[in-house]
Design goal:
Helix content: 40-55%
Structural class: alpha/beta
Strand content: 5-15%
Radius of gyration: 22 Å
Order of helices and strands: HHEHHEHEHEEHEHEHEEHHHEEHEEEH
Shape: globular
Bound molecules: 4'-deoxy-4'-aminopyridoxal-5'-phosphate
Length: 423
């Protein structure tokens, strides 16, 4: 479409780049995520999309933010537009430390808290601090490409651990860590998304959380706990995050908990907080100074006011109700249209995603291209497997499309799968 902005990502269709010889080897190697491309195609009006992981814009608290913005400018004046400390606005760090202790059982004070531009920045900073070329980070197969991309960008080595219905397989991680020890490799961290993982939608069981903490202690590692979805639980019992369990497990300070506000407040404000050992926070602060000096001050004051007025709790409740309805709609469409004897999928208790497993040998990437030709978009699972496995899986997001659109999309994908199975 001519009025669409050109993709910012390098591709073979681009004209020759006259400055290629000046770029670092790493910049030349880095691959754009094809997910962003498919999500862009999914945004076309004629496409029924189950691709995008972005939260539903209808949930954003636009009026409340407009009112708060006026109030913040009236009460704080130019301070609201000034730089702030790299650690974050002090009152917000205090408020997030209280949130961490009261709501999540994380014993935190201001010194444990760093405010970042989204959890993506939190991951980037912690991996910058931890990972030298060749250092190992364990991660799920599948897992979120934003984290694995941040490790690869630093020359880190990813070691994949299978993810099943109870999350990352901690016993497999234990075996792999022994092998790495024998090899003389240097594992520095385990990256986990504890609840309603992207893309698998599963939650890590309590027993596995405890096992991972024991492994972190035994192998002298940090756990990078990326938890953007934990507060979006629709049913079932909440499980404490690893950060809340670390002290009892004798692994105090070993969890770097990264808590996005993108799914509970507003992703465009780019806000997240990190709860970590104060020494780790100090290292991340130094790294952040050279990246962006500080997180945007105005956005931090908006969040502070939003939390102080009790609106974040209300927003989370409203989001849970909305996404629960969306999940139910997608699951019932799947029950109606997918051949459950040959294809399996999970029933997530929270978050935004369902992962579908096709029979072994069936290629989800090919299916996604065929679906796109029928104006249906979803993301194939190989993108979430850094080692190229998971080719028979794909992710469905129930975030943004209406139940009617999801029904049409699922019916179409179901028909394509049945045709392939029959062939
Ligand atoms: N981690 C996971 C698991 C995610 O799914 C996402 C976004 N989809 C992020 C981090 C990035 O979130 P943020 O907007 O806070 O950078």
């Amino acid at each position: 479409m001519s009025d669409e902005p050109r993709s910012p990502y390098p591709s073979s269709a681009d004209p020759p780049d006259p400055f290629l010889h000046l770029y670092t080897e790493r910049a030349r190697q880095q691959q754009a995520s094809s997910i962003r491309e498919i999500c862009k195609l999914g945004a076309r009006p004629e496409v029924r999309s189950l691709a995008g992981g972005w939260p539903a814009p209808g949930t954003f608290p636009v009026e409340e933010v407009a009112e708060i913005a006026r109030d913040v400018l009236a009460s704080r004046g130019p301070d609201a537009l000034q730089y702030c400390q790299t650690e974050g606005v002090t009152a917000l760090r205090d408020a997030m430390a209280r949130w961490a202790s009261d709501k999540l059982g994380i014993p935190a004070t201001r010194d444990h808290i760093l405010i970042t531009h989204g959890s993506q920045q939190g991951m980037d900073l912690i991996f910058r601090v931890l990972v030298e070329p060749g250092d190992v980070v364990l991660c799920g197969l599948p897992t979120y490409f934003g984290a694995t991309g941040a490790v690869s960008a630093l020359g880190g080595r990813l070691v994949g651990i299978p993810v099943d219905q109870d999350g990352l397989d901690a016993e497999a991680a234990a075996v792999r860590l022994e092998e790495l020890r024998a090899e003389g490799a240097r594992p520095k961290g385990i990256y986990i998304i504890p609840s309603f993982q992207n893309p698998a939608g599963v939650a890590l069981s309590l027993a596995r959380r405890q096992r991972l903490l024991a492994l972190a202690k035994e192998h002298d590692l940090l756990i990078i706990e990326d938890d953007p979805y934990g507060e979006l639980r629709f049913d079932g019992q909440p499980i404490p995050c690893c950060k809340a369990l670390e002290r009892a497990a004798g692994a105090e300070g070993r969890v770097v908990h990264i808590h996005s506000l993108s799914k509970t407040f507003a992703p465009g404000l780019r806000l997240a907080w990190v709860a970590a050992d104060p020494g780790v926070v100090r290292r991340m602060v130094v790294a952040k100074q050279y990246v962006d000096t500080c997180t945007n001050t105005f956005g931090q004051y908006l969040l502070l006011e939003f939390v102080s007025r009790g609106l974040l709790e209300r927003q989370i409740e409203a989001n849970i109700a909305y996404y629960r309805g969306q999940r139910d709609a997608l699951l019932s469409s799947l029950d109606r249209h997918f051949p459950s004897d040959r294809v399996r999928w999970n029933r997530p208790e929270g978050g935004l995603f369902v992962l579908v497993h096709l029979p072994e040998g069936m290629d989800a990437d090919a299916l996604s291209r065929e679906a796109l030709a029928h104006n249906v978009a979803f993301v194939s699972g190989a993108q979430f497997h850094h080692d190229g496995s998971g080719k028979n899986t794909f992710r469905l997001s129930f975030s943004q499309s209406s139940p009617e659109v999801m029904e049409e999309a699922v019916a179409r994908i179901g028909a394509l799968i049945r045709a392939k199975l029959g062939a």
